[in-house]
Fold each of these.
Amino acid sequence: MKKLVGALLVVMSITACQSKTEQTGNTVPSEAFGYTLNNSENINTVKKAIDAGVTSDSAVFVAIYADSAAVYDNMTKQTIFDNMKMASTLKSKGITMKLEKINDIWETISFKADNRDYSDYVNVYFDASFIKGTQKLTTRINAVFAFKNGKIVTEWDTYDTAPLAELLK
């Protein structure tokens, strides 16, 4: 009898400590407002936008951004053309930009469009270096891209401007 009770205790302990791996289906909680993806066409478009920004490729910008797209560069509203001019200005001062690494990127898709009529957003955190001569300074950039009909309609960039200011001295 002691062996039976001992064996039952061992089996119960093992069962209680195991993580549940059973599928419960694709039910969505009623509080959910959307879902996230780690791979999508919009994510690929954002990667193209980052590369175009680093290389100042205006043809790619024109192809992937809506004509009326706005870029909020550290809260300063710009058109994509103003944003491209900023990259040209840096180049004219001998500063180049290099994408070091994409740290995290995902797309959030809402079940219902927000007050701007957007439901698809891509969030990205990446490290970029600004290089002038032998100086190389790196900063982390957080960018959020809103999409409508497969085009980027709004971009919000947030980053520390100190590395750029240092190189512009």
Amino acid sequence: MIEPSIDAHKAAGLCGHGNEPSTCGTCQTTELTQAEALVHQEMKEGLPVISAEDYVRFYNTDIRAAGADTAVTFNFQGFVKEEREGYIQGTFYKDTMATNGILKAEGHEGIHVSTDGVIDYSASGNYQMKSLEDVGEYDIYIKVPGKLQVEKMCVVRYESCTPESEFDGDSEELERTRSEDGYIVMRLKLEPREDKLARQKAELIHNQIVRFVERGGALHEIQGRTRSLEHRLENISEEDFPTQKKLLESE
């Protein structure tokens, strides 16, 4: 071509395959990192700033919709600009990891695993974070569709998961419980304000949960396994963490 051309994909914020970077199964991406998924971004304090609409979209992305075989995690530390009507206006700090569509099948959307850095579990949505120093803890939320609970012969209620054989209600209550999504909720005991490795540890725990579920692990074992891993990570030094992380990931 004699005259230079404009890359329409890049101009539109798309990857070289003409897709959203967050949902392109051809890119062989294993993680929706800030650098890969968020293009032409505004920066604040050295971190990306994205719109609330984009944040929600990335948070709920199911990469399988683009034909990928394995889960992709939206891994984000940065700021979200909220300009939507009906929401508290401003630019707020967000720290999150979200993986969608795990074990997705016909009839349900699969499992969603998210790990969120928050001020405190009991703080209401009105308490928005202004910077990374506001992160006081990491909380894990695992959404399990009712139909998947039936498939996995488990029951998710009261923020926990138990085998179907241990359910203490009658058949009507069991059916009612499984008529909607259930949530497993865990507050990690990590101390972000004291432990420099807290975020990396939370990321390792998140990825291990995703890996365990993808491999067909029993959902009622997630909480016990998570607490055990959390305990093993408790007193690891910065110097030893890279080696210990590799060992844990290889198990």
Amino acid sequence: MLSNPFKKIKFVSLLFIYIFIPLTPLRANYSNDYLEIDMLVLRCYKDIKSCKEALFKTNEYQKNAAKNKKFSCQTRLLGLEANLVMAMNSNFKRKDAKSIIYYIKKYC
């Protein structure tokens, strides 16, 4: 198929680039997701009216984690959802939320 060694190297290099370059924006996306969750939760603890938005967004991320079989991430997001529900009922657990968000960053 490819007889010239330089053509083989060029082919393999291009294949490598096409496979791994598209993954870079995905990694950046996960980082942005984490920052968005952190911001929404912080806003929720400052103003209870914004907790509903944080809860819906966290639920979306939780469903995506389940779909992608990232069960350790999904578990942390479910814990955060429970914490947000408690915040909506004026049962604030900010310390718990910080801990959960730390583990979301680690596992998601």
Amino acid sequence: MTEDLLDPLRDDVPDEEPKADARALAKRASDVRPTAHVPQQTGVPEPPAYEDPTAGGARFLSHLLTRSPFLDYFCQVAESSYQGKTTEPKVRKAQQEHPVLFRSCVVADMILRIVVVLLILALIIAVAIKTLWPLIQ
């Protein structure tokens, strides 16, 4: 029943057919050329290059007062949610569609700056009182 089937593992079976298939495949493979199409850029923005906040005391305070983490988050969500080439129209569209979230991000950034300024002032006052307290007594 299986005598008429070819066994590829036997040595006495002529294997001209696989060689011919391999030659045809090799010939077709030599016709393949690399594509001239260059992939387009994804348009993903690079993160901003922030200075090292641990470089010095004044730089650290400056860094804390210039950061807007909530508004940065809003812009990042707008960038990933809307289509377009530049960031500005995406943020403008997100601002129009989500005005409450935009306002809350702006208010949260202002509150953060106020808290940072109050902490800096409290530290300055604490150092001044600690320094001047022995002179007052």
